[in-house]
Design goal:
alpha+beta; six-stranded mixed β-sheet; three-stranded antiparallel β-sheet; 13 helices
C-alpha cells in the first residue's frame, strides 16, 4: 500500500474506531478536522442526510501531501468494509464515494494528485507517481506497450483514415462472420479468439475498381489490418496484440480514432495525442525525437520513462501471502487495451505462482463478451463484482461465474461471465436470453 492510500485507510480507521453517537453525530463528524497534521489537511466533516441515492453518512474531504485531494464517506451503519474507488483515463477528479454506502461500505477516492484531464501531470514527477498508483478494472498497466501501439495506429489513420461508416461496416461484417460461432445468434461474438482471419475475411470488404461505397479502400484495409493484427518484432515475437473482432461500431473505435472536441483540438483524436504524451515522458532524453520514433524497433528506449506507470512484475507472492484476492475483468472488445494483454498477464502470474491452479487461489480473470472499454457495448456488461470479491475474501468462496446483464434500450438479456479460460455455453434448451440456461465450461 502506498503512503497516500495508507493515510486514507488510517483516516478511515480513526473515523470508524468510535461509532458516531446518535445524539451528537454532527459534532463527531465535524471534529475530524482535528486529524490535520503535517501530511494531511482535513476539512471539517459534513453530515449528509439520507436521500434516494444514499443513506445518512459522514463525508470528509481533504488533501494528502499538499496535492492529492481525497474524499472519504462513512455510513452510520458501517459494516467494517471499505471500497477505494479509482477513476479512469487521465484521472484528475475524485471518483464515486456513495454507490455502496447503502450496502454498508465506507468509500474513499482521490484525484491521484492532479486536477483536470490534460496531461500536464506527466511533466511533474510526483504527480506522475501519484497517478500511477491507482489500478482498476480493464487496467492500462503497460504504457511501454500501449503508447507505441497507439502511435503506430495514429500514423496509419492519418494516411488512410477509417471513418464512422467504416466502423459500422466492419462491425456488421465481423458479426455476420462470427456471431453464430457459439451456436447463438445474439449480436455478440462470445469468443473472439475463434473469429480468425480465415473466418472473418477482410479482403471481402475491399472496394472494386469502380466504387468506394459500402467498402474499404486498399489503404483503409491496411489501417484495419494493423488494428486487428499483432505487432511483432523481427523475430516474430508479439510486442502488441491486436483488437479482437466485434463491436467495431459500438463506439470505442470512433472515440479513439476520430477527431473529438473533448481534447480541445477539433482535428485531433485520442490516439493522435499519444505522441504528445510520449514526448512529455521522454523530455529528459535529449536524443529522443518523436518524429523519428519507431513504434516497433525503439520500444526499449521507453523502459525507464514508463517504469513508474507500468506493472513490471508478475510476482504477486506478497499480495497473496497477506490474503489478497484479485478479481480482474476485461471487455473482449476493448479497443485501447486489447484484452490479450490481460490474458497474457494472467499467464505470467500463473508461471510465477507455480501453475494455473495455484494462481487461481488468489487471481481470477473474467472476460466480458461484447463489452468495449470498461462498460457498454452489445454484450451483457452490467455486473456486480463486489459481492463475489467479498465472498472470496471473507469466506473463501472463489468466484466461478458472475451474472451479468445487458440493459435497454437494446433487447435486454442476461449471461454468466466465466472465470478464464472457461466461457459461457448455451445448454440448448430454455430461453436463450436467460443466464440460467447457460453454463461455464
Amino acid at each position: 500500500m502506498t503512503p497516500r492510500l495508507f493515510a486514507l485507510a488510517l483516516l478511515l480507521l480513526v473515523v470508524g474506531a468510535a461509532p458516531l453517537a446518535a445524539n451528537d453525530t454532527g459534532r463527531d463528524c465535524r471534529g475530524l478536522v482535528a486529524l490535520t497534521d503535517l501530511d494531511h489537511a482535513v476539512e471539517p466533516g459534513m453530515r449528509v442526510a439520507a436521500s434516494e441515492r444514499a443513506p445518512a453518512h459522514c463525508r470528509v474531504r481533504g488533501v494528502v501531501n499538499r496535492a492529492i485531494r481525497f474524499e472519504v464517506t462513512l455510513p452510520d451503519d458501517w459494516n467494517g468494509r471499505m471500497m477505494f474507488s479509482t477513476v479512469g483515463g487521465a484521472a484528475g477528479f475524485i471518483g464515486d464515494t456513495t454507490s455502496l454506502l447503502g450496502r454498508g461500505f465506507a468509500m474513499a477516492s482521490t484525484d491521484t494528485g492532479h486536477e483536470g484531464q490534460d496531461r500536464d501531470y506527466v511533466r511533474q514527477p510526483e504527480a506522475l507517481l501519484d497517478y500511477a498508483y491507482v489500478l482498476a478494472g480493464a487496467p492500462a498497466f503497460r504504457f511501454q506497450e500501449f503508447v507505441p501501439w497507439m502511435i503506430g495506429g495514429a500514423r496509419l489513420q492519418a494516411k488512410h483514415a477509417l471513418t464512422a461508416e467504416s466502423f459500422q461496416l466492419l462491425g456488421k461484417a465481423s458479426r455476420e462472420a462470427c456471431d453464430a460461432l457459439d451456436g447463438v445468434d445474439d449480436g455478440v461474438i462470445d469468443d473472439p479468439m475463434k473469429c480468425t482471419p480465415d473466418v472473418f475475411d477482410l479482403n471481402a470488404l475491399q472496394c472494386p475498381p469502380d466504387s468506394t461505397a459500402n467498402c474499404l479502400t486498399a489503404g483503409q484495409l491496411q489501417t484495419a489490418r494493423y488494428m486487428y493484427g499483432d505487432v511483432v518484432d523481427a523475430d516474430g515475437n508479439v510486442l502488441s496484440p491486436g483488437v479482437p473482432p466485434g463491436a467495431e461500431g459500438a463506439g470505442d473505435w470512433a472515440a479513439w480514432m476520430l477527431p473529438t472536441a473533448r481534447r480541445g483540438a477539433p482535428d485531433q483524436s485520442l490516439i493522435d495525442g499519444m505522441d504528445v504524451l510520449l514526448a512529455a515522458l521522454m523530455r529528459f532524453e535529449p536524443d529522443f525525437d518523436i518524429e523519428t520514433f519507431d513504434p516497433v524497433a525503439d520500444r526499449d528506449l521507453l523502459t525507464a520513462a514508463t517504469a513508474p506507470l507500468d506493472v513490471l512484475t508478475a510476482d504477486l507472492s506478497a499480495f497473496r501471502a497477506r490474503g489478497g484476492k484479485l478479481l480482474m475483468y476485461q471487455g473482449w472488445n476493448d479497443y485501447p487495451l486489447r484484452p490479450q494483454r490481460a490474458i497474457d498477464y494472467l499467464h505470467e502470474v500463473e508461471k510465477e505462482s507455480g501453475g494455473a491452479d495455484e494462481a487461481g487461489e488468489f487471481f481470477r480473470l473474467f472476460m466480458v463478451p461484447g463489452m468495449i472499454h470498461c462498460s457498454r457495448g452489445p454484450g451483457a456488461w452490467v455486473a456486480d463484482y463486489v459481492d463475489p470479491l467479498v465472498a472470496w475474501t471473507e469466506k473463501g468462496v472463489a468466484p466461478e461465474r458472475i451474472e451479468a446483464s445487458r440493459p435497454g434500450p437494446e433487447p435486454a438479456f442476461t449471461r454468466p461471465l466465466c472465470a478464464w479460460p472457461e466461457t459461457a455455453k448455451y445448454g440448448g434448451e430454455g430461453d436463450v436470453n436467460d443466464a440460467v440456461n447457460w453454463s461455464c465450461r
